Amino acid sequence: MSADDKDHFDVLVLGTGVPESLLAAAHARRGDTVLHLDTSDKYGGAWANLTLYELLALSPTDAIENMSGFEHRPASRLDTLPPADLARFNFELVPKLLYAQGELVELFSTTGAGRHLDFNLVEGTYIHSSSDPAAAASNDAIQNTVRVPASKEDVFSSSAISLMEKRRLMKFFTDTLVTMVDFEEGENFHAFLNKHGLTGKLEAMLAHGVALLQGSSEQASAQDGIARIQKYLSSLGRYGNSPFLMALHGGGSELSQAMCRVSAVYGGVYILGRPVQDLSWSAADSQWTVSVAIGPNDLQTFTAKKLIGNPHTLSRMTKPAESSSAAADTAATSHHIIVVTNVPVRQDTLLGLFVVPSADGDSDAAVQVTQQSSELNCCPPGTFLLHARGASRSAVHAALGLLVPESSWLHAMHYTCHSDQHASLNATLARGLGLAEYDVTDAALEIVPGLSGALDIDQDIRSVLDRWKAQTGMTTLMETLPNPEDEQVVTEARQLQEAEGGGDGVGAVSQQ
Hints:
single chain; alpha+beta; 10-stranded mixed β-sheet; 17 helices
């Protein structure tokens, strides 16, 4: 087949989730031809934001990739809102936080891929302190939540911790985390913290409020716990007195569209909202073949050297026997509840992260709750979106009940998310797609992870970035993108010089 065949591409990408869109942009920027398909008519896949009406239409029998069991609380009071407000909701099923010094933000800042995105700073992280009467009664406790210190000033101004605890905390931050001189291989995070006198509420604050562990500190290694704290601390101060950012207008959809925009600028071809069928691999030709129903009687066939997709998208394209095997994956399950309320957790916080340790008495199950507001253009003014994630349904329900009274809930929906153990599925999926075997270095197929229940978005993309760097030898996903504003300045300067007859200086201007 001719290399310049308009129906033949270097890369075929199925699905427009964030990992898939990152790779589509990377390949296109490198000069590869890219065909990007999605059977949905909106970007993002499981990452896509939903309107209120799309959310209300979800039922227990529905599934969105690895999310299922959608159950709405019977007593909905959304009819108390003005009708015009109902169209102003944008729901993310699994909202993500971006660390200011995280991998995705660093990618955006170094390449310019995120220059069309808007973010707001999360105002603070808070720990629910009902189990600690002294902290709950402190001056900085509101709704039994205490702010996690985000600076040296926060540490010493907090009335929730004693002077001795403040000194231990500052010594830990300034000494131990810089040198890690007493870090022992195989040591768990609980033992490491206790060795430095960080017990009780200080351990809970560091483990759940800073390291963002959902399980107990005994289940995490000291190495992992320290890495998480260092990431938190390094992100403080880059954009303000908080390490976290949240994307406006629906988060995941915006991130996916930003990367798809890069791909399209560099020649990527996009077909959304059309059925995709007959995906097959030809070993003889070393290429993939796929058909897309462009119209009622128009089935167009494309070929590509490489296929990219997540397990859920690819399993729908496999042979029935292989598809059922893939569906039997034993993945970790997290429970989620979205609540629409007209009362914030704290009156002084519009965008916040709230952590409730042991919400239902299980010391190994902290619940993480994000609060979004109209600041993110995801809901009308005067309403708030709370999203809780945890290890059990009872835990997430109890956590939300501790933060805001159920009488303020306008609507609530519970569902589950099954995080991929995609490495164990790769060989099965490859066989179902027609490949005899699958290897992580295989140039013909790349299986990316589906949307996880994790709060940190970097956990969803890290394996994708690491594999790209290993495959290409590049230190980042793509070369820096030209800045359209700079190019516009050069163009206007050239036009002005030409109008004035000063063509000799154009070369100098274009180099600035």
